[in-house]
Amino acid sequence: MKTQDARKMFDSEMSGTKRPGVFGTKLPAGFTSAYLVQQLAPGQDPKRVVLSSAEPWPLRQNSFVAMVCLAASPEEAARSMQYDSGSCSSLTGGDSDKKDVWFGVFEVTGGGPPKLIARTDTPVTTPTNWSDTDIDLPVDLDARDAKDDALSMPASWTRFDLAPYQIKSGEYAFGVRAGWSEGYAGGGANFEALYLFRIEGKSLRVVFAQPMTFDKMIAGDWHKDGTRSHDVSDASNSLLILPSETDGFHDIQLRQQAGKWRRTFKWSADTRSYE
User: Fold this and answer.
1) Which of residues 259 and 97 earns the better pLDDT score?
2) 3-class SS string, the chain
3) What superkingdom does the record give (predicted)?
4) CA-to-CA distance for 198 and 104, rounded, in angstroms?
Protein backbone atom coordinates (compact mmCIF):
# COMPACT_ATOMS: atom_id res chain seq x y z
CA MET A 1 0.00 0.00 0.00
CA LYS A 2 1.16 3.51 -0.83
CA THR A 3 -0.05 5.40 2.23
CA GLN A 4 0.71 4.98 5.91
CA ASP A 5 -2.83 5.56 7.19
CA ALA A 6 -4.31 2.99 4.83
CA ARG A 7 -1.67 0.47 5.91
CA LYS A 8 -2.53 1.08 9.58
CA MET A 9 -6.24 0.64 8.89
CA PHE A 10 -5.65 -2.54 6.88
CA ASP A 11 -3.30 -4.03 9.50
CA SER A 12 -5.77 -3.28 12.27
CA GLU A 13 -8.59 -4.93 10.32
CA MET A 14 -6.51 -8.04 9.60
CA SER A 15 -4.93 -8.47 13.03
CA GLY A 16 -7.65 -7.08 15.29
CA THR A 17 -5.09 -4.78 16.94
CA LYS A 18 -6.81 -1.85 18.60
CA ARG A 19 -5.72 1.61 17.50
CA PRO A 20 -5.25 4.57 19.88
CA GLY A 21 -8.52 6.09 21.05
CA VAL A 22 -10.60 3.08 20.07
CA PHE A 23 -14.03 2.97 21.69
CA GLY A 24 -14.84 0.35 24.26
CA THR A 25 -11.78 0.44 26.50
CA LYS A 26 -12.28 0.47 30.28
CA LEU A 27 -14.08 3.61 31.44
CA PRO A 28 -12.04 6.02 33.59
CA ALA A 29 -12.85 6.41 37.28
CA GLY A 30 -16.11 8.27 37.85
CA PHE A 31 -17.68 7.22 34.56
CA THR A 32 -20.22 4.43 34.04
CA SER A 33 -22.36 3.54 31.04
CA ALA A 34 -25.52 4.43 32.96
CA TYR A 35 -24.10 7.85 33.91
CA LEU A 36 -23.07 8.57 30.33
CA VAL A 37 -26.54 7.72 29.04
CA GLN A 38 -28.12 9.96 31.70
CA GLN A 39 -25.85 12.86 30.79
CA LEU A 40 -25.45 12.51 27.03
CA ALA A 41 -28.77 10.93 26.00
CA PRO A 42 -31.26 11.95 28.70
CA GLY A 43 -34.51 10.05 28.65
CA GLN A 44 -33.11 7.12 26.68
CA ASP A 45 -33.33 3.53 27.97
CA PRO A 46 -29.89 2.48 29.30
CA LYS A 47 -30.73 -1.07 28.22
CA ARG A 48 -30.22 0.12 24.62
CA VAL A 49 -26.49 0.71 25.24
CA VAL A 50 -24.10 -1.36 23.14
CA LEU A 51 -20.96 0.70 23.75
CA SER A 52 -19.73 3.59 25.88
CA SER A 53 -16.32 5.23 26.06
CA ALA A 54 -14.46 8.15 27.64
CA GLU A 55 -10.92 9.41 27.14
CA PRO A 56 -8.86 12.24 28.68
CA TRP A 57 -8.60 15.23 26.35
CA PRO A 58 -5.08 16.57 26.94
CA LEU A 59 -5.68 19.80 24.98
CA ARG A 60 -8.42 20.97 27.38
CA GLN A 61 -7.57 21.14 31.07
CA ASN A 62 -9.20 18.49 33.32
CA SER A 63 -11.38 17.38 30.42
CA PHE A 64 -12.65 14.12 28.97
CA VAL A 65 -14.41 13.34 25.69
CA ALA A 66 -17.09 10.68 25.88
CA MET A 67 -19.63 8.80 23.79
CA VAL A 68 -22.54 6.38 24.06
CA CYS A 69 -23.86 4.16 21.28
CA LEU A 70 -27.45 2.92 21.51
CA ALA A 71 -29.28 0.28 19.53
CA ALA A 72 -32.85 0.77 18.34
CA SER A 73 -34.24 -1.29 21.24
CA PRO A 74 -33.06 -3.35 24.22
CA GLU A 75 -33.63 -6.48 22.12
CA GLU A 76 -31.43 -5.16 19.31
CA ALA A 77 -28.81 -4.15 21.88
CA ALA A 78 -28.71 -7.71 23.23
CA ARG A 79 -28.38 -9.04 19.68
CA SER A 80 -25.53 -6.65 18.91
CA MET A 81 -23.73 -7.55 22.13
CA GLN A 82 -24.01 -11.22 21.21
CA TYR A 83 -22.76 -10.97 17.63
CA ASP A 84 -20.64 -7.80 17.54
CA SER A 85 -19.67 -7.00 21.11
CA GLY A 86 -17.42 -3.99 21.61
CA SER A 87 -18.39 -2.10 18.47
CA CYS A 88 -20.80 0.63 17.43
CA SER A 89 -21.68 -0.79 14.01
CA SER A 90 -24.78 -1.34 11.93
CA LEU A 91 -24.37 -4.92 10.76
CA THR A 92 -27.26 -5.06 8.30
CA GLY A 93 -27.86 -1.43 7.39
CA GLY A 94 -31.57 -1.78 8.17
CA ASP A 95 -33.59 0.54 10.42
CA SER A 96 -33.84 -2.11 13.15
CA ASP A 97 -30.04 -2.33 13.27
CA LYS A 98 -29.52 1.44 13.26
CA LYS A 99 -27.22 2.78 15.98
CA ASP A 100 -27.60 6.20 17.59
CA VAL A 101 -24.44 7.84 18.89
CA TRP A 102 -24.07 10.84 21.21
CA PHE A 103 -20.86 12.66 22.18
CA GLY A 104 -19.97 14.98 25.04
CA VAL A 105 -17.21 16.78 26.91
CA PHE A 106 -16.83 16.55 30.69
CA GLU A 107 -14.64 18.24 33.30
CA VAL A 108 -13.33 16.46 36.37
CA THR A 109 -11.92 18.60 39.17
CA GLY A 110 -11.28 18.19 42.88
CA GLY A 111 -12.21 14.53 43.02
CA GLY A 112 -15.89 15.24 42.30
CA PRO A 113 -18.07 13.50 39.71
CA PRO A 114 -17.57 14.34 36.03
CA LYS A 115 -19.41 17.55 35.11
CA LEU A 116 -21.01 17.75 31.67
CA ILE A 117 -19.76 20.79 29.73
CA ALA A 118 -21.32 20.19 26.33
CA ARG A 119 -23.05 17.44 24.36
CA THR A 120 -24.58 16.77 20.98
CA ASP A 121 -28.20 17.91 21.19
CA THR A 122 -29.40 14.80 19.34
CA PRO A 123 -27.80 11.63 17.99
CA VAL A 124 -25.29 12.56 15.29
CA THR A 125 -27.08 12.87 11.95
CA THR A 126 -24.47 14.79 9.91
CA PRO A 127 -23.56 12.73 6.83
CA THR A 128 -20.02 12.42 5.52
CA ASN A 129 -19.54 14.74 2.54
CA TRP A 130 -18.39 12.60 -0.42
CA SER A 131 -19.12 15.23 -3.08
CA ASP A 132 -15.51 16.28 -3.77
CA THR A 133 -12.90 13.76 -2.65
CA ASP A 134 -9.96 11.71 -3.86
CA ILE A 135 -11.12 8.76 -1.74
CA ASP A 136 -12.90 5.89 -3.52
CA LEU A 137 -16.56 5.59 -2.57
CA PRO A 138 -18.18 2.55 -0.95
CA VAL A 139 -20.09 0.48 -3.48
CA ASP A 140 -23.58 1.54 -2.28
CA LEU A 141 -22.68 5.22 -2.60
CA ASP A 142 -20.88 4.80 -5.90
CA ALA A 143 -23.84 2.94 -7.40
CA ARG A 144 -26.41 5.49 -6.26
CA ASP A 145 -25.92 9.05 -5.07
CA ALA A 146 -22.99 10.29 -2.99
CA LYS A 147 -25.31 13.00 -1.68
CA ASP A 148 -27.77 10.46 -0.24
CA ASP A 149 -27.67 11.39 3.45
CA ALA A 150 -28.75 7.95 4.67
CA LEU A 151 -26.05 6.18 2.67
CA SER A 152 -23.46 8.79 3.66
CA MET A 153 -23.92 8.19 7.38
CA PRO A 154 -21.11 5.97 8.69
CA ALA A 155 -21.86 2.31 9.27
CA SER A 156 -19.57 2.31 12.32
CA TRP A 157 -18.11 4.73 14.85
CA THR A 158 -14.69 3.53 15.91
CA ARG A 159 -12.35 5.84 17.84
CA PHE A 160 -11.45 9.26 19.16
CA ASP A 161 -8.83 11.24 17.24
CA LEU A 162 -7.33 13.76 19.69
CA ALA A 163 -4.73 15.34 17.42
CA PRO A 164 -4.26 19.11 17.98
CA TYR A 165 -7.02 20.43 15.71
CA GLN A 166 -6.69 24.12 16.65
CA ILE A 167 -9.47 25.67 14.60
CA LYS A 168 -9.05 29.16 16.08
CA SER A 169 -6.79 30.94 18.56
CA GLY A 170 -7.21 29.29 21.96
CA GLU A 171 -9.78 26.76 20.73
CA TYR A 172 -9.44 23.12 19.71
CA ALA A 173 -11.91 20.74 18.12
CA PHE A 174 -11.70 17.01 18.80
CA GLY A 175 -11.94 14.32 16.19
CA VAL A 176 -13.86 11.06 15.84
CA ARG A 177 -13.13 8.41 13.23
CA ALA A 178 -15.99 6.54 11.61
CA GLY A 179 -16.22 4.18 8.69
CA TRP A 180 -17.60 1.56 6.37
CA SER A 181 -16.47 -1.96 5.43
CA GLU A 182 -17.53 -4.13 2.53
CA GLY A 183 -16.65 -7.64 1.43
CA TYR A 184 -16.11 -9.09 -2.02
CA ALA A 185 -15.40 -12.62 -3.21
CA GLY A 186 -11.75 -13.04 -2.19
CA GLY A 187 -11.31 -9.44 -1.05
CA GLY A 188 -12.79 -6.41 0.64
CA ALA A 189 -12.46 -2.71 1.37
CA ASN A 190 -12.41 -0.33 4.32
CA PHE A 191 -13.22 3.38 4.35
CA GLU A 192 -12.67 5.93 7.10
CA ALA A 193 -13.99 9.46 7.68
CA LEU A 194 -13.01 12.19 10.14
CA TYR A 195 -15.63 14.13 12.11
CA LEU A 196 -14.56 17.27 14.01
CA PHE A 197 -16.65 18.45 16.96
CA ARG A 198 -16.61 21.97 18.39
CA ILE A 199 -17.93 23.16 21.76
CA GLU A 200 -20.53 25.90 21.16
CA GLY A 201 -22.06 26.97 24.46
CA LYS A 202 -23.56 23.83 26.00
CA SER A 203 -23.74 22.08 22.64
CA LEU A 204 -21.30 20.04 20.59
CA ARG A 205 -21.54 20.68 16.87
CA VAL A 206 -20.11 18.73 13.95
CA VAL A 207 -18.06 21.27 11.98
CA PHE A 208 -16.30 18.94 9.53
CA ALA A 209 -17.12 15.48 8.13
CA GLN A 210 -14.94 14.24 5.28
CA PRO A 211 -13.63 10.88 3.98
CA MET A 212 -9.95 10.43 4.81
CA THR A 213 -8.73 6.93 3.92
CA PHE A 214 -9.60 3.80 1.98
CA ASP A 215 -7.98 0.48 1.26
CA LYS A 216 -9.28 -2.05 -1.24
CA MET A 217 -8.24 -5.57 -2.17
CA ILE A 218 -9.83 -7.26 -5.20
CA ALA A 219 -9.11 -10.89 -5.98
CA GLY A 220 -7.53 -11.68 -9.35
CA ASP A 221 -6.37 -14.81 -11.18
CA TRP A 222 -5.64 -18.16 -9.56
CA HIS A 223 -2.16 -19.66 -9.98
CA LYS A 224 -1.13 -23.29 -10.44
CA ASP A 225 0.29 -23.42 -6.91
CA GLY A 226 -3.11 -22.57 -5.44
CA THR A 227 -2.33 -18.95 -4.63
CA ARG A 228 -4.26 -16.03 -6.04
CA SER A 229 -3.29 -12.58 -7.26
CA HIS A 230 -4.85 -9.54 -5.63
CA ASP A 231 -5.15 -5.98 -6.89
CA VAL A 232 -4.59 -3.56 -4.02
CA SER A 233 -5.42 0.17 -4.07
CA ASP A 234 -5.50 2.83 -1.39
CA ALA A 235 -5.42 6.56 -0.70
CA SER A 236 -5.15 8.66 2.46
CA ASN A 237 -5.37 12.33 3.30
CA SER A 238 -3.72 14.40 6.02
CA LEU A 239 -5.43 17.40 7.59
CA LEU A 240 -3.39 20.58 7.95
CA ILE A 241 -4.33 23.69 9.92
CA LEU A 242 -3.41 26.67 7.76
CA PRO A 243 -2.24 30.07 9.10
CA SER A 244 -4.86 31.87 6.97
CA GLU A 245 -8.21 32.60 8.62
CA THR A 246 -11.84 33.16 7.67
CA ASP A 247 -14.13 34.87 10.21
CA GLY A 248 -11.54 34.17 12.92
CA PHE A 249 -11.27 30.44 12.18
CA HIS A 250 -8.20 28.86 10.63
CA ASP A 251 -8.65 27.53 7.12
CA ILE A 252 -7.95 23.81 6.94
CA GLN A 253 -6.68 21.72 4.07
CA LEU A 254 -6.79 18.06 3.13
CA ARG A 255 -3.65 16.90 1.34
CA GLN A 256 -3.28 13.53 -0.31
CA GLN A 257 -0.49 11.45 1.15
CA ALA A 258 2.02 10.54 -1.59
CA GLY A 259 0.00 12.52 -4.13
CA LYS A 260 -0.90 15.98 -5.41
CA TRP A 261 -4.61 16.29 -4.59
CA ARG A 262 -5.54 19.22 -2.31
CA ARG A 263 -8.76 20.71 -1.00
CA THR A 264 -9.06 23.76 1.27
CA PHE A 265 -12.01 24.34 3.59
CA LYS A 266 -13.07 27.71 4.99
CA TRP A 267 -15.32 28.56 7.91
CA SER A 268 -18.92 29.40 6.99
CA ALA A 269 -20.66 31.82 9.34
CA ASP A 270 -24.02 30.70 7.90
CA THR A 271 -23.66 26.98 8.63
CA ARG A 272 -21.19 27.42 11.52
CA SER A 273 -19.02 24.70 9.97
CA TYR A 274 -16.29 24.20 7.37
CA GLU A 275 -17.21 24.18 3.70
Assistant:
1) 259
2) CCCHHHHHHHHHHHHCCCCCCECCCCCCCCCCHHHHHHHHCCCCCHHHEEEEEEEECCCCCCEEEEEEEECCCHHHHHHHHHHCCCCEECCCCCHHHCCEEEEEEEECCCCCCCEEEEECCCCCCCCCCCCCCCCCCCHHHHHCCCCCHHHHCCCEEEEEEEEEEEEECCEEEEEEEEEEEEEECCEEEEEEEEEEEEEECCEEEEEEEEEEEEEEEEEEEECCCCCEEEEEEEEEEEEEEEEEEECCEEEEEEEECCCCCEEEECEECCCCEEC
3) Bacteria
4) 10
The overall average pLDDT reported for the chain is 89
Report pTM. Answer: 0.91
Query: Which amino acid would we find at residue 219?
Result: A
Closest by CA to 102, choosing from 90, 118, 115, is 118
Buried b (16+ CB within 10 A) or exposed e, 110-144: eeeebebbbbbeebbebbbbbeebbbbbbebbeee
Distance CA 104, CA 213 (A): 25
Rounded Cα gap, residues 162 and 179, in angstroms: 17
Domain boundaries of the chain, sorted by first residue: 4-268
User: Half-sphere exposure of 207 toward its Cβ, with a 13 Å CA cutoff?
Assistant: 29
What is the percent of the chain where pLDDT is above 90?
67
For residue 146, pLDDT over 60 is answered with no
Q: Tell me the average pLDDT across 166-178.
A: 97
Burial class of 218 by CB neighbour count within 10 A (0 to 12, 13 to 18, 19+): middle
Confidence band of 186 (pLDDT split at 50, 70, 90): confident
pLDDT for 5 equals: 82
